[in-house]
Amino acid sequence: MEQSRLFDMIVLFTDFGWRGPYVGQMKAVLAQQAPDQLVIDLMHDVPVFNFRAAAYLLASLVEPFPNGTVFLAIVDPGVGSRERRPCVLKADGRWYVGPDNGLFNVIARHSAEYSAWVIDWQPASLSDSFHGRDLFAPVSAQLACGQLPAMTETRLAQNPEEWPIDLAEIIYLDAFGNAMTGLHGARISKHAALVLNGTRINYARVFAEAEKGVPFWYVNSNGLVEIAMNQADAAQTLGLEIGMQLQII
Amino acid sequence: MEQSRLFDMIVLFTDFGWRGPYVGQMKAVLAQQAPDQLVIDLMHDVPVFNFRAAAYLLASLVEPFPNGTVFLAIVDPGVGSRERRPCVLKADGRWYVGPDNGLFNVIARHSAEYSAWVIDWQPASLSDSFHGRDLFAPVSAQLACGQLPAMTETRLAQNPEEWPIDLAEIIYLDAFGNAMTGLHGARISKHAALVLNGTRINYARVFAEAEKGVPFWYVNSNGLVEIAMNQADAAQTLGLEIGMQLQII
Amino acid sequence: MEQSRLFDMIVLFTDFGWRGPYVGQMKAVLAQQAPDQLVIDLMHDVPVFNFRAAAYLLASLVEPFPNGTVFLAIVDPGVGSRERRPCVLKADGRWYVGPDNGLFNVIARHSAEYSAWVIDWQPASLSDSFHGRDLFAPVSAQLACGQLPAMTETRLAQNPEEWPIDLAEIIYLDAFGNAMTGLHGARISKHAALVLNGTRINYARVFAEAEKGVPFWYVNSNGLVEIAMNQADAAQTLGLEIGMQLQII
């Protein structure tokens, strides 16, 4: 019983924030259509409408989740438009449900194998503006319950092979002012420095080993290169913003 | 088993915000007194102390929830005063637990039939300032478990028939700067314009069809008229505030 | 079955905020390692890095929780340093898991009896910066499932007897601008006044009985002395900050 539960987790990853009824309404759908599955709020403050940063962020977070986990991931500037299709990706045993706008490209890029489908299944009632609740949540519930919704195999709208594995950009600023990048710590020398907004930034293993008032980079708990300051707000001090590019020297 | 769970959902709708221990303390009570019921955080950023806006907002959100759902709803400027009574409403098969201050009036106004009760049940220990945890949560747990607390049938303190079905006011601003109104989209012509703070606002079906930089109104995913801008913050651009009135022309 | 669930609750108390993946990642660990236990978010906006204020806050919140509850509590400026040890406290039948930096001192001070252990158990993979996910969450899951991780009885790094029972300081500012103190309402006369930042503050039983525009103190729902204003923001009006000291006259 515990085992079956593990393989059914539904993980939410959105740019909805914690304000408004949006997250709650999706969870109400999941509660009704997949009542025995655990739902985890992974994050709801993904950079708004920024599916490129979100794609790198999501890819850094999925590894600890077991096979069969369903990620309901929504960062979607084009909701209601006819251009972007609703899709399902299966990669390395995990499911991803959301818009086919690039959000799953880094997952696909990293995976040993993946398949993608466009969702054909339609709810009885589909609002123009809230596909998360009306379409993606029911499809996620079906997958978590071991059912396949009507869907057709396809290619992702954007070719994952054209996306770099390492992205030398800031992809997320956390509440403490730390700046995550799309660079993998395992692929960069500890002797390398980063240059960001004119500032040279050296490596430190942990906050406690960094000099106060001096920015440093370290490998964060998800394996990404992150820029921080010991007991200070690096983002504010250095004027960092999501999308800002950095050099490795 | 799945069925029984569906009929027992407890839905939280408050102005407590996500800061502080308040939501967590209510959920700890529910976890102990109704451990098998699912608890959904519908929203915790209802306009603070504004039970009138909250009443219209709540009424727009309840329809997807099944019979037997218990809404624990608290927007309560008068907590600790002796004037407002604690009440239970049953309307169209759903339960509502909270203060009798108008919060449930729009639900009652819209329902085919409803009954209201004043809560006589008292906890062993009742704080002066946190009836949500001490009184409303235990009563919600009892109802969700199929037990009736001691209560006496009554009339709501305010007569629902005196509240308009459509409220031509802003009742909520979301994190993206979209402004919900108390107007029902199904009851207004798509050719109508809204006038708000001196600005004339026309209809668009979805964000993607609206011109950038020009505010529009559309019918949101809960059926309410909502004012928005494509990839911009309508509330900030137009100086919108909760309670602001609008004209339909 | 309901009983067994009660004794297994895991309660989160952190300074992580609701932004970022941190809370979600801890809950994903708990979901996998303690899938039948209820997890309660008690609060995630504990004053950042302020384990002293946090210790008084936590102690005011635990009483309603049953024996066997596991508190996963993290306020940890020294994560990654070798100075502070990971610890487990058992006090009055409840478990506490977190850093041995003073966070559990007020709990220990108040308890009839307590024991403390340093955690010897090590995860297969331990990041430098996120012990909450890698170490404290698995240990909490083990305790909630009735297993004891490898650990050695010890003394707390700071002696609880040296911490005062009442702390005449502001320990928390809530979203409404109310200021909690570390003073116990039951140990102070209702005729006493507080002096804070040059302002004299008298007692009122509830908000509704306080004069508008005049700050008052009352005993909050957790038994602590709290400073507030009726329908106004006391923190902003009086310029209050966490750590500010007050006098009782």
* Largest interface (CB < 8 Å): A-B, 30 and 31 residues
Net shape of chain A: elongated
Strand order of the largest sheet of chain A: 2-1-3-5-4-6-7
> Helix/strand/pairing class of chain A, anyone?
alpha/beta
Describe the protein in words.
The first copy, chain A, has 249 residues and is an alpha/beta fold. In chain A, the strands form two sheets. A seven-stranded mixed beta sheet of chain A has the order 2-1-3-5-4-6-7, with helices on one face. In chain A, 21% of the residues lie in helices and 28% in strands. In chain A, helix 2 (22-33) packs parallel to helix 5. The model of chain A is unreliable at 1-6 (pLDDT under 50). The N and C termini of chain A lie far apart (52 Å). In chain A, a hairpin with a 2-residue loop joins strand 10 and strand 11 (199-203). Chains in contact: A-B, A-C, B-C. The interface between A and B is medium-sized, with 30 and 31 residues.
Topology, element by element:
3 copies of one chain form a homotrimer.
Chain A: H1 2-6, E1 10-14, H2 22-33, E2 39-43, H3 51-61, E3 70-74, E4 86-91, E5 94-99, H4 105-110, E6 114-119, H5 131-144, E7 151-154, E8 167-173, E9 179-184, E10 194-196, E11 199-203, E12 216-219, E13 224-228, H6 234-238, E14 247-248
Parallel strand pairs in A: 1-2, 1-3, 3-5, 11-12
Antiparallel strand pairs in A: 4-5, 4-6, 6-7, 8-9, 9-13, 10-11, 10-14, 12-13
Helix pairs in contact in A: 2-5
